[in-house]
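Hi everyone,

Forwarding the result from last night's run.
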Amino acid sequence: MISIQEASEKLLEAFRSQEFGPQLTLSIIRRRTDDPVNSLPCTKWSIGNHMLMWLLGHTDAAATFLQWKQLNRRVVKNAKAFPIFSPVTAKVKKQNDDGTVEEKTVIRSFRAVPVFRIEDTIGIAGDLKIPDYTPPEMPPLYKAAEVLNVKVYWKPMSRAAFGYYSPGDNSITLSSTDHVVWFHELTHSVRETLADTNADPDREEIIAEITAAVLMQMQFGETGFHQQSYEYVKRYCKEKSPEGIIKAVMGVLKDVEEVIVKILNAADVAANSTVDQAALF
């Protein structure tokens, strides 16, 4: 494995020349056809309510408290509901020109209905059997996350992101099996222990993406994601010119190195722990 400095230099060289070569498309974890979530009432909601489910609930499966109870799932304590809108209907009678009376159902208004994410429910006896989306093989440096007490989940994509980090419970949720996404979110989790990540969110995104790109370079060499990393970083740069992007990258390299060192140290701790346990047998 090449050093952090070598990997950083190779990445900067690619960014300066913008000769990226063939690029790969990020994978997406999609919900399986046998997943019972496909039959939940929310699958029949309006497009507007689906947007609310994505934007407010950050999920692709939600239901009311009573609906979850009927499905043998219990909403966890302190779970926060988010609203969808249900039509309030009424039946009205209308007399046609020929004298006949026709009854129609019309929408009078809308009312807010609180619903809860499937992620905020716990199954009880006879509950929905949700498939396990954990990949058969863990990503590189996964053991480092265990040492750092970071929980990792895999689930079908339910928001406009391939993954996200939740500081509240120190967890990473991945909707892609690509290692570059994993490294990006792992970086966010480590940064939470090193700095005030709310001070400059745009800079945090640059740090996370460059760290992911450098780790990919260290682990696998040219990976086919450099152009995507370049465009991602550009999105969060104040100055969008090639020079401005290089300047922004150079400005975070110290932070990138700090994160990678902490991840690699945690991986070493995990490896040594495995060796120590093996020595007992």
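The beta strands are 62-63, 73-75, 82-95, 101-117, 121-123, 151-154, 163-166, 171-174.

Cheers,
N.
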